[in-house]
Amino acid sequence: NLQVLLRRRPKGEPVPEDFEIVETPAPEPQEGEVLVRHQYLSLDPYMRGRMSEAKSYAKPVELGTVMEGRTAGVVVASKAPGFAPGDSVAGGYGWQRFSCVKPAGLIKVDPKEAPLSANLGVLGMPGLTAWVGLEDIGQPKAGETVVVSAASGAVGQVVGQIAKIRGCKVIGIAGGPRKCQYVTEELGFDACIDHRGDLKAQLDQHCPEGIDVYWENVGGEVQAAIFPRLRDFARMVMCGVIAQYNVVEGADSFGGPPGPNLGAVVRKRLRIQGFIVSDTGWPRYPQFRKDMLGWMADGRMTWREDVAEGLRKAPEAFIGLLKGANFGKLVVKID
Ligand code: NDP
């Protein structure tokens, strides 16, 4: 087995030395387990949290153990009912080539419905995140203005396309002209703003009447520019703040530079709500998958992946993700 372990906890931005790559014997499935050979590993921003000891909604990865992550692959041996060699599955586990898992952690997928790797993106956890967050919190209505940050990424690309399906005006925010062009031309958003430019002026230009739904993936300066432009009764879906994941000090405090004046939450009757996809998402997975496959089939849902070749490239690719080096859902193709 080839595995990527967490060697030490990063201080600020992770570096390659925080990881260790090891070769170990392939695991043997125990009674009730399935042995999966992973073909794709999903790399996601939440993994930065798992590398840290700070209190969070999930336990940190222990030092010296395999990095956590969802995978898609093929069953090679099974001692569990319902799974046979050759089955395609999503939800094997960890930054490694093989894993032994209980069937409860696996979703059997049909490779004819979509490429295997799509089960880690548009049809996987990031797609489910977009679907749940819009349904429960964003609740976009036809004609409303929806702004999505990290718009070309795994979650953002799905959020914006669902909002278009719902009849909204959708404005993306992304880093650089290539990503912005993709967001308007391929994903069909009404406009896309480069956050490296004058964010405030561009927001005023594209959202002259303000913003009804803001999908927060980024935080920091982007959030500061959005907040005063929220309309009465706007919803702010707090999905993530990737710009702040490598910040060491004051992660949970009111300290630091002045933030938005939260008095506006009252005055404008704003709804600002955070959520974690795993709280309520997975029991609704069958409905999500049905919606998504329908939209994919009728051409209203497209997606883009960024594929790193080889498990040994995973640390470098993950470090890049936290700086916007990825273009689309980041996955590793396991050699
Ligand atoms: P993406 O595929 O969007 O990749 C991350 C993107 O974030 C980068 O490509 C970059 O896009 C942007 N970015 C990175 N660093 C910065 C920065 N310093 N300032 C501004 N933008 C930055 O990732 P995901 O779609 O997987 O995740 C998006 C967000 O959703 C994250 O915050 C993540 O933690 C959150 N999330 C939350 C879940 C939940 O349950 N609440 C579940 C899944 C994801 P660009 O170049 O365009 O700036």
From TrEMBL:
<protein>
    <submittedName>
        <fullName>NADP-dependent oxidoreductase</fullName>
    </submittedName>
</protein>
<feature type="domain" description="Enoyl reductase (ER)">
    <location>
        <begin position="14"/>
        <end position="332"/>
    </location>
</feature>
<dbReference type="InterPro" id="IPR020843">
    <property type="entry name" value="ER"/>
</dbReference>
<dbReference type="InterPro" id="IPR011032">
    <property type="entry name" value="GroES-like_sf"/>
</dbReference>
<dbReference type="InterPro" id="IPR013149">
    <property type="entry name" value="ADH-like_C"/>
</dbReference>
<dbReference type="Pfam" id="PF00107">
    <property type="entry name" value="ADH_zinc_N"/>
</dbReference>
<dbReference type="InterPro" id="IPR036291">
    <property type="entry name" value="NAD(P)-bd_dom_sf"/>
</dbReference>
<dbReference type="InterPro" id="IPR041694">
    <property type="entry name" value="ADH_N_2"/>
</dbReference>
<keyword id="KW-0560">Oxidoreductase</keyword>
<dbReference type="Pfam" id="PF16884">
    <property type="entry name" value="ADH_N_2"/>
</dbReference>
<dbReference type="InterPro" id="IPR045010">
    <property type="entry name" value="MDR_fam"/>
</dbReference>
